[in-house]
Amino acid sequence: MVHSQVQVNKAHKTKFSSKSSRKLHKTSHQDGGRIRKSDSSSVKGAKAARVQRGKMLREQKRAAVLKEKRASGGLNSAPRVIVLFPLSASVELNSLGQDVLKLLASDGSGIASSTVASSEYKLRATVLKAPHGDILTCMEMAKVADLMAFVASASSPWEENKSNFIDSFGSQCLSVLRTIGLPSTTVLIRDLPSDLKKKNEMKKMCASQIASEFPEDCKFYPADTRDELHKFMWLFKAQRLTVPHWRSQRPYVVAQKVGMVVDDESSGNCTLLLSGYLRARKLSVNQLVHVSGVGDFQFSKIEILKDPFPLNERKNQNTMELDVSHDEEVLKSLIPDPIKQEPLIVENTPDPLAGEQTWPTEEEMAEADKNQKQGKLKKRNLPRGTSEYQAAWIVDDTDEENSNDGESDDDGMVLDRGEDSNHERRYDQDFEDDGKSLNVRDFDSATQNDSEMMDDEDLTEEQIKEEIKKIKEAHAEDEEFPDEVETPIDVPARRRFAKYRGLKSFRTSTWDPNESLPQDYARIFAFDNVARTQKLVLKQALKMEEEDRDDCVPTGSYVRMHIKEVPLGAASKLSSLVNTTKPIIGFGLLQHESKMSVLHFSVKKYDGYEAPIKTKEELVFHVGFRQFIARPVFSTDNFSSDKHKMERFLHPGGFSLASIYGPISFPPLPLVVLKISEGSGAPAVAALGSLKSVEPNKIILKKIILTGYPQRVSKMKASVRYMFHNPEDVKWFKPVEVWSKCGRRGRVKEPVGTHGAMKCIFNGVVQQHDIVCMNLYKRAYPKWPERLYPQLL
């Protein structure tokens, strides 16, 4: 029987075939070579895991947003701080502030405080009015604001294509507030015309002219009538507020009441009482607290009081009665644990005997005798005039190098055989072509006060003007001839510039960061790894926020902080400031933030400040919530080298590095630099920037250029004069490389005559009109401030 043969064609392989269909031809030895489809249960399981993971992430983000919303606008949250800021002097804030408070008050009357609780809006708010012309108060209010409501007046005079809604002070404050970090912002427009068409046109014109000064999501609202304020308040209640990141890392309290308890007048200290709502994070009673403008302190006690402005009280009850009846009721008291409480350490106490050599042991003396006997047996080549005691300190390898180097007089330093011959020989090995520098240790009394101003308090007005004139002339000279100095005639250059040294290359030559440190470096602290320490400190703070601990105060509580050992004079000033508009801020410090170190800031001179800013000049630094006095050293922000060149003045137009002695703070933090005027005038904004790093080992070098002029030129050789004035100085600085302003590089060969002239050899033809230069460097340090905090003046 013949079976019919049916043609079976191969299945067409499409471009979009699935993975399972492409594996059909594969066989498995365990299945006996049968062809079967792969099990897709593992694929389905992986897909289900991905779906589940995405669902969990969405739920976590939703829960975080809901928690943030409840924390900022819930019943147990602190009142929202609304800061009304006038953009010009023609804006009337008093009437607007009263309208907002009456709108929020439950019965519309009896407004006795800037904080009100509104049962209609289910919102608590604190309304602050920024005074026009007071830059310090405006900055302090912006640091604690949840909403910055900028107020513009439509009745301000204006011209076509020119905006006059913002005056000079308003523009200055906007620059400062952008540096600090703006929270949620809005613009309220007052004094609009009553006609609807003209009102909309004026609003659009105002928004188009000043919109570039504010963030993109900033909204513009009219604020003349009660209905317009009502609409704005409903939108504000539903708005998700944003604050700068640095504010959300530390707990803080805006004081509504300030008191003081004097325990012992003879000690000069007292206990400061600050009452207010706790914001941002939990506060531990074992933490350190910083009072803005006063300093760092410890807690003696924290009391949790009953909320004076609750939302669930009867509508007809007066706000003042609530304040009186509930302010003194203590719900809970927290006492610090002496074992867990963080110690208040500001400066390191150096041990003057830590560097002293101890008496050697018998084993060390026996080993020294053995080495000395072995050294006598070996023949050593020592320099002429070396005593036996000096020879004991010379290493054998160094002796061999010295003997090899001494074969040629041109490779080393030409020494004077007089009384300083042995002293000068010690530095002979530091002058080599591989980048080693001239190492000198003599005290430079003439350059110690190069950048200091006159500190006498009894200066007359004419002397002050003369000093300012000298600074301006020095600033102009520094811009025209940077780093160039003249060699004195009556003082030897090797003594005048004894602390300076030469470098083969500023970028690649080595400089020991621990060499010849000043005494102030014994008072500061340093980290082995700053980034790792900051990560650990922030992790501990976040852990404390998530845990339920007995020593912590929850966010949103109304507390009374008992801060001990506050100076009596500073506490009296704070008590007098509570009646003014300036807020008093107390915030919790992270670990190590009370200790002193060397801080580096990236700063830029403010465009509106025209006076020169000199290095080591006394300035007020506002770093986050902190404000303290510092005397910075300015330098170039060099990315390609570990060394930074010092600048005598802060030049406009670019960013520079400002290094100071100050309390440790972890970046990122904003910086505003203020210059205190000589009289009683308001401080001026001098520079803006941010905190860059905490690094005491950063090397800042002060550079000077000694100049000379060719007297005789013969192709690549030249006789140079007026750089030095005696041959001993020429021999001393002989290993340092010289260069010319026309691009030639060379070296000093030998002195000529007795008046400081020298013969130099260059790598090209030297012109007669050229100028020969020599670069010298020394390490510069910031100056320790005489007083640290401005409230202690």
From TrEMBL:
Entry-linked InterPro entries: AARP2CN, Bms1/Tsr1, BMS1_TSR1_C, G_Bms1/Tsr1_dom
Where does the record say this protein resides? Nucleus, Nucleolus
Q: Where is the composition biased (Basic and acidic residues)?
A: 28-39, 414-444
Main subcellular localization, coarse class? nucleus
Annotated spans, Disordered: 1-59, 363-458
Coiled-coil segments, which residues? none
Query: Where is composition skewed (Acidic residues) in this entry?
Result: 396-413
Q: Does the keyword Chaperone apply?
A: no
The answer to whether keyword Nucleus applies is yes
Q: What keyword terms does UniProt attach to this protein?
A: Nucleus, Ribosome biogenesis
Compositionally biased intervals (Basic residues): 10-27, 373-382
Domain (Bms1-type G) spans 78-242
The record's listing under SMART domains reads: AARP2CN (SM00785), DUF663 (SM01362)
Against PROSITE patterns, the record matches this protein to: G_BMS1 (PS51714)
Family note = Belongs to the TRAFAC class translation factor GTPase superfamily. Bms1-like GTPase family. TSR1 subfamily.
What is this protein called in UniProt?
Answer: Pre-rRNA-processing protein TSR1 homolog isoform X2
The species is Camelina sativa
